[in-house]
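Can't paste images in this forum, so I'm doing it all in text. The chain is below; anyone willing to post the predicted structure tokens underneath?
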Amino acid sequence: MRLWKRLAFALCLVMLPHAQALAATVGDDGLHKQPWFTVTFKDIAEDIETAAAEGKRLAIVFEQRGCIYCRQMHEKILSDPEVTDYIKENFMVVQYNMFGDEEVIDLDGEELSEKTAARKWGFVFTPTIVFLPEEVPESGTVSETAVAIMPGAFGKWTFLNMFRWVHEKGYDGDEHFQKYHARIINELREQGRLGAE
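Text version of the structure:
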């Protein structure tokens, strides 16, 4: 029995650095940081082009210091490999501080801070995830051209299914996200894969 305990302890020591490397950290701004989030100059048009060059879509996530729902998103949803693997493969995620002062360049060329961008675009909840089009639009702002916006915190399947729906361009089709989500949930139930939402 002691041998098994020693082997288990040794395995934990080997795995611990890997687990810590994948875990979210908290930055100086008080926001949780995922190691796979992309840090950019927050020029939206440039970020859309960068994401497209990598075969991905741009998603912006607004968060704020002390947001319990943001923390839950990082600790409960973004800690799930099924969720993070899908997002990392298909999306470039850039984090914005709802009350931050970093410069942002909107799609209409206006230069503003993160906090004035949030006001301009009408985002008041954190987390809020904004999904941008595949290509830089000819005109409009982020809020006018976003293909989908997910305000607030949701469970795993709603969260993941929104990313899937955007990736599959469900916004161009006839199946509203709620119907898409319900269909996927039914399929998961039939497969016996549905856990607690």
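The longest strand covers residues 57-63. The longest helix spans residues 2-22.
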